[in-house]
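Re: weekly structure request thread

Next one in the queue (196 aa):
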Amino acid sequence: VPEAISILKDAAKENTENFLPPLLLANIYLKQLRKPDLADSYARKAAALAPDHFAPVEVLWETQQFRGQASRAEAVLAKAAESGSENPWYWVHLAELYRRMQPIDHPASPVAQERMDAALRQAALLGHDRADVLSKVAEFRVLAGNFVEAKDLYEQLYALDPEYPSALEKLAAACLETRDYDQAEKLLVKMLEANP
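Done, posted below.
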């Protein structure tokens, strides 16, 4: 670990515009050495260098969680939600972190659900032309039981890229969930014709 830290510190000094060395240092200091103050410092540097990337935000949040500072962790997410990031994956990852904060066996609280929804709306808006983003946002909608929105997203996904893995299958499943049986049948026939 000391050698890795030395190499990363040198890399950070040589290329002051690259957010990866401070981000990696933040992770090492937090997860391996359990030094949250240093982790926080490097994560803030990484966040300043790469405001469109979510990874530094996640490390800042984890640092506050490690310290037992729930209110500060919440403040990190509140600030992240105000980001002007135009990277749709930033918003997907923010929604994932909101979901991760909820107990696995319980639905999200109304406040957490609204925060996730806002992040997912932003992701879908910015990623409207990206099949990977639409697929991920649609998966969130399925998990939340919102099959109408999932169906709309899978329709967009299929129109954008009919060859996207399992796009047709997921669209057919969403049609079944929304009781659009005629459309589901057409899609299932299409799937069978493509894969006899």
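Residues 110-126 form the longest helix (17 residues). DSSP finds eleven helices and no strands in the chain.
Next request, please.
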